[in-house]
Amino acid sequence: MSDEEMEGEKEKHLGFIFCYKIFGFVFGLTGLGNSLRVLIFLLGVGTGWAQVQPIIRIAEIEHTDSQLMVTVESLKGKTLSYTLQRSPNLSLGSWIDQDDVTLSVLNSSRIILTLPLNNESAGYIRVVASSTLSPVALVINEVMSNNETTVVDGDGDFPDWIELYNASDNPAELTGYYLSDNDADLSKWDFPDGTILDQGKYLLVFASGKAGDEIPEGEMHANFKLSSGNEPVILSNPLLKIVDRLDPGPLVSDNSVGHGLDDLETYYVFHSGEPSPGAPNYDFIADPPEPFVQAPIFSVRGGVFDEPVTLELIPPRKEDLIHYTMDGSEPLRGSTPYRGPIELTETTVIRAVVLGASNSHPVTHTYIIGANHSLPVMALAADPEHFEFTDGYLYGFGDHMFTSRGNIIGSFPYSKSHAWKRDREIEASFEFHEPNEGGTSRMNVGVKIFGGWGSRGYPQKSMALFARSEYGY
Fold first, then answer.
1. Are 468 and 229 in contact (CB under 8 A)?
2. Rounded distance, CA 121 to CA 88, Å?
3. Which residues have C-beta within 8 Å of that of residue 190, sequence separation ≥ 6?
C-alpha cells in the first residue's frame, strides 16, 4: 500500500485496514487530550520474511489519561520479541521505536505492552513481533560500482552489481525487502514477490536501472545505477530498518569491495580478476591485504541552505573513529577528532575520514549557507597548500624562484614556475549544486592548470577537470 493510499485510508477514518502482508485496524481513543488514533499493524519479520498470515493478534486495548495498554497474543505458539512503534503520519520511515514501553508477561502466549502517553500529540502506533529463533543473516557480500569487463548481463551490457549472501541455516524470503543507493530513500527498489535466497547461497542483483520488459529473462535488476565513489548500497527489511550497508567508495574499473571468504566481519578490496559475482569470494589464504575501511556517513548532504545546518558524522561501526577538517585539506590522524554535532553558520567545506590501518577514503560535502543563487553553484575542494603562492604544487612559483630576500627571480610569464609543469595534477572533490532543489552531483576529479601565457603567468589561472579511472570513474 502506497503512502498516498495509507493517507487516504486515514482521512476516511476506516475501522479496519487490510492489505497484503499487513493486518491491522484503526480506532480513536476518546478521553485523551489530543484524540490519539491507534493503528495496530501486526507484522512478523524475524526470520527474513514478511508474513502472509498474522502471527499475533491484539487481544485487548485499555487506556487511561496517562498510559496505553495493549494486550498481544501469539497465534503460532512461538517465542516472540515485541516492539511498539509510533508515527505522526503513517509515512514510510516515520515509525520510531518507543523505548519507554514496559512489557509484562501474562503467560507463554500473552503479553501486555504499556506505553506512557505523557501528553503526546495525536499519532499512530503499531506492534511488531519478531521471532527470537533461527534468525536469517543477510549481508551485502560484494559490490562493484565500476564494471567494465567482469560480468555481462543478458543484453550484453556491463552494469554495476550487488551480491547478497544468506549466512544463516534457514532460507530467506526477500519479499518486502529493499535495496537502495540513497540513505534518504531506503525503499528505492523492492525485491520481486517470492524471491527466496537459500541458506549459504548468493544472489546477484544488477544495478542497471532497467525495469519491466527491459530486464533480461532469469536476471534480477534494480531500478537504479551506482555512482562510483558517492553512493552506498543499503539493504533494508520490510519495516525499513537497515539490515546492512556498504559504501565501497571510489573504485577503479573491475575492482570490488566485499567480505573475505568465511569472514563476515571484514571487508577487502578485490582487484581485477578477483571479484566473484554470485559465487564464494576470493580467498586470500594466509596473506590478506589491509582491511577496507568504510567512510563516515553525513547526516546532512552538502548543498545550498538558507539557514544554519547541524551536521552529524556517523561512524559505520560504533567503534570507528572519525577525524575531519574544515579548510579543504585532506583529513588525517592529526586532524580534528569528531566528538559531537557540528554547527555550521557560514559556508563551510567538511572533509572526513574513518581512521584505520588504511584510512577510509575522504568524504567531502560543501555547505553553502545564506547565499541565494539563481544559477548552478560549482564547489571545488582540495588541500589549500596546492594553491599556495610561494611553493604550492599547482599555483606556486617554487622556492627556486625567490632570492634570499624574497624577491621573485625572472619575469612574466614566469615559465619556470610550478604552473608551467604540465604533468602536475591533484585530486579534488567536485560538487555541482543545481538551484531550486535541482539536486547535487558529486565526484572526485583530477585538477590541472590549463592554457598558455594568459593562464599560467597571471595570478588568476584557468583549470581543467579530469574524470579518471584512478578517481573511480
1. no
2. 8
3. 176, 177, 178
All three cell numbers of 55, joined, read 502471527
State the Cα–Cα distance between residues 3 and 348, nearest whole angstrom. 36
Distance of alpha carbon 353 from alpha carbon 252, whole angstroms: 19
* DSSP-assigned beta bridge partners for residue 402: 408
pLDDT digits (tens, 9 = 90+) for 202-231: 999 999 999 999 999 999 999 999 987 778
Which domains, from first to last, does the chain contain? 3-131 (no CATH), 138-270 (2.60.40.1260), 296-372 (2.60.40.10), 373-473 (no CATH)
Q: What pLDDT digit, counting tens, does each position of 236-294 carry?
A: 988 788 999 999 988 889 999 999 888 888 899 999 899 999 999 888 777 788 899 99
Question: Is the model more confident about 13 or about 394?
Answer: 394
First vs last C-alpha separation in the chain? 38
Question: Three-state secondary structure along 26-69?
Answer: EEECCCCCCCCEEEEEEEECCCCCCCCCCCEEEEEEEECCCEEE
- The cell for 146 is 565500476
